[in-house]
Fold this sequence. Notes:
The complex is a heterodimer of chains A (about 300) and B (about 240).
Chain A: E1 2-11, E2 14-24, E3 29-33, H1 40-47, E4 55-60, E5 63-64, H2 69-74, E6 76-79, H3 91-101, H4 106-119, H5 135-147, E7 153-157, H6 165-178, E8 183-188, H7 191-197, E9 200-205, E10 208-213, H8 215-220, E11 228-232, H9 235-243, E12 248-254, E13 257-262, H10 268-279, E14 283-288, H11 293-301
Chain B: H1 4-17, H2 20-39, H3 51-54, H4 57-69, H5 71-79, H6 81-87, H7 92-112, H8 115-124, H9 129-154, H10 160-176, H11 180-186, H12 192-200, H13 203-211, H14 217-241
Amino acid sequence: xxxxxxxxxxxxxxxxxxxxxxxxxxxxxxxxxxxxxxxxxxxxxxxxxxxxxxxxxxxxxxxxxxxxxxxxxxxxxxxxxxxxxxxxxxxxxxxxxxxxxxxxxxxxxxxxxxxxxxxxxxxxxxxxxxxxxxxxxxxxxxxxxxxxxxxxxxxxxxxxxxxxxxxxxxxxxxxxxxxxxxxxxxxxxxxxxxxxxxxxxxxxxxxxxxxxxxxxxxxxxxxxxxxxxxxxxxxxxxxxxxxxxxxxxxxxxxxxxxxxxxxxxxxxxxxxxxxxxxxxxxxxxxxxxxxxxxxxxxxxxxxxxxxx
Amino acid sequence: xxxxxxxxxxxxxxxxxxxxxxxxxxxxxxxxxxxxxxxxxxxxxxxxxxxxxxxxxxxxxxxxxxxxxxxxxxxxxxxxxxxxxxxxxxxxxxxxxxxxxxxxxxxxxxxxxxxxxxxxxxxxxxxxxxxxxxxxxxxxxxxxxxxxxxxxxxxxxxxxxxxxxxxxxxxxxxxxxxxxxxxxxxxxxxxxxxxxxxxxxxxxxxxxxxxxxxxxxxxxxxxxxxxxxxxxxxxxxxxxxxxx
Lengths: 308, 244
């Protein structure tokens, strides 16, 4: 279990992380969500023992990051932001270094290194110098060094940042494959990632924890949750007719689509489909919305809603 | 301390994976030969010793050792690998010592590669080889002093050029503090004891006595203390600056 208690970090007058407390159980993929500069990386740097908290503490499986730092770090795999690597070394040499630092020697070292290379599909570039590799390969090397010792907890700072869509997909697949019994903490500002990957999400902004919920729970906070969106010819007529439903709270016409928001009384979707059937409108699309994370994110972090 | 050797090995692997090692060794060997034969008048003196060879080592190190030391931490901080390094189960002390020892051994290797001049002087005459061994040891210790200063200042900045310039300046002060041009500044208004103290900080004074074959424990201790002090400072500076 990872436990953070009142973690706080100041950089001079700037309060980067403000009194952050949380616990993470094995089997959880926790997404740190937040705007740039929210304090996600600073929090991760404190959890991995790189930065001393100004106040507060954190334990990795009971080992305090300050007083028992080595034991805490042994139980962690960490991919720092931007996946820094020793570019002048070959992939194999670099992974050997990490394995040695993790205490593996001889056959065990070779076995671990080989397993990590296999897992990340790095076989074809194993002998190559890291700085000559593409961004996608470099990121995979960064993940390989983090999982080499099969740690019970992995902390990955923006693991998919700067990758192309295929590479992103690949990294996400890896993360979800590995997650069954581990603690994974992933920071991102890509919302789809949270939906696709995480079992729990924390929204952080200006160093403070603003929301801590499952992705489904976050979606429920969206005003689009259970809203119905239609695409049809005569938007204005349909808007005024559907706006009168007791199940509807509000209607919105935006970019050729009509969205009806639920009032909470009765089943909106059923009511809308009934009206559509009765009135005989030519509807080309009808959709029950599960909610929009970007909207929740903007609401929670307090960014001003942009005019349509 | 088990991970000290892991850090050391990785550092050495990096030296030889890049042109740094080869460029340094070649330049070092060429420069020391130039100083010995042209400025030192090795042949003209017609004395079978290596005094003209060792005399210029402090000046050679003044520029070459900061060139090795400047990258130790500045590069790690610039590329962010310091975060990787210090979140492995490696202590800051192991990292500081491992990096220092790797660079020091590397300079030692360059020094060992000057052995042809030792052979030469033994062919030409009958030198006191004990003095020569002492001088080699003194030279290596002095290089360690310069290196510890450079390593510490390298941790203070992300920019290698800044680390280099700062190191050269501080090394220069340590080198010259025994010369009259520095001591005359203080003479007359500081008590003799303090002036002696400043003079005693000089690398030159301690190195010169070792290179003459006088292995005084105080001279050896001096270099060991200088190295220890600057490495302790390196650890503190690293802790303060690593996350900037």
